[in-house]
Design a protein that fits this description.
single chain; alpha+beta; Glucose Permease (Domain IIA); ten-stranded antiparallel sheet; two-stranded antiparallel sheet; about 25% strand; rod-shaped
């Protein structure tokens, strides 16, 4: 019975019907249409498929898609690309600054920086040592030039032009109790001054480190011109923050006795030039 009922329903889809339109006044037939249920299904189904295809084409190949909520327009997509490039550049800059601060921390702990280190140096064969002894004419010419330039105080001399070393002032008014001795891993000088003495910036520059560590206590470092870096350790208090600009003579810290490596109230002062430690006494008159 169920099978016969399904067959009957399927046959009914093909039964013909007539749709007529009559004039209400004289009942004259104006328009008629013969159709079946299957014709109606096919017509509306085809019309729906055509409408969906047309709308899809309009959205895919015309600017109308930009009016759809949530769909990015051309300017937004350009912004996405621009922001992606900026993020990539910022990642490289952050990585460079990260390596830079790692080198600073290594320098403050008495190590050797990793940035710029070349591993191929050891494989290069050392060149033969050449000893050049000055001739008699060269020695006479050197003596003559030195005697002529001995009392030359001209500011525009070649010596002053080649010398780009900034003028440094002493960080504190005190005496040196421990001199610069890199053979014993002492890469600076220890200065003893009065209690609560203010520590001064030796020259203008930017504070690149202002922190506390277990070994060196309150430590501050300033980047100066011409590749110089000054480091002040074992302070009792820091008065400048990282990123601040300081002038020569500005009070940046208070002398103290912080950190495990200290032996008493003093300032451990270091001076670096292009990543290499130098004797501060050769640049500053304490």
């Amino acid at each position: 019975m169920a099978a016969k009922k399904k067959v009957k329903i399927f046959k009914n889809l093909w039964n013909k019907y007539r749709l007529s339109i009559f004039n209400e006044e004289n009942y004259e037939e104006v328009w008629q249409l013969r159709l079946s249920r299957m014709n109606v299904i096919v017509f509306f189904g085809g019309f729906s498929i055509l409408l969906i295809a047309l709308v899809s084409v309009l959205i895919a190949f015309t600017p109308l898609r930009e009016f759809i909520p949530g769909y990015p327009d051309s300017q937004t997509r350009k912004g996405y690309v621009k922001n992606a490039l900026k993020v990539d550049s910022l990642e490289r800059v952050v990585a460079q600054w990260q390596r830079y601060y790692e080198d600073i921390n290594i320098l403050l702990n008495g190590g050797e920086p990793l940035t710029g280190r070349q591993t191929a140096i050891d494989t290069v064969k050392p060149t033969a040592k050449v000893e050049l002894s000055p001739s008699e004419e060269d020695s006479l010419l050197r003596m003559q030039i030195e005697s002529d330039e001995m009392f030359n105080l001209s500011v525009g001399s070649s010596t002053t032009k080649k010398s780009n070393i900034p003028f440094f002032i002493p960080p504190v008014k005190g005496i040196i109790t421990n001199k610069y001795n890199p053979s014993k891993n002492h890469y600076g000088v220890d200065l003893v001054a009065g209690p609560n003495e203010g520590v001064l910036a030796i020259a203008k520059g930017t504070v690149i480190l202002s922190t506390w560590s277990l070994e060196t206590g309150y430590t501050i470092a300033i980047q100066h011109e011409e590749g110089f870096l000054s480091v002040y350790k074992h302070n009792s208090k820091l008065l400048k923050r990282q990123g601040e600009f300081v002038n020569s003579g500005d009070v940046i810290a208070i002398i103290g006795n912080s950190g495990e490596l200290t032996t008493g109230p003093h300032l451990h002062f270091e001076l670096w030039h292009h990543g290499a430690t130098v004797d501060p006494a050769k640049y500053i008159k304490f």
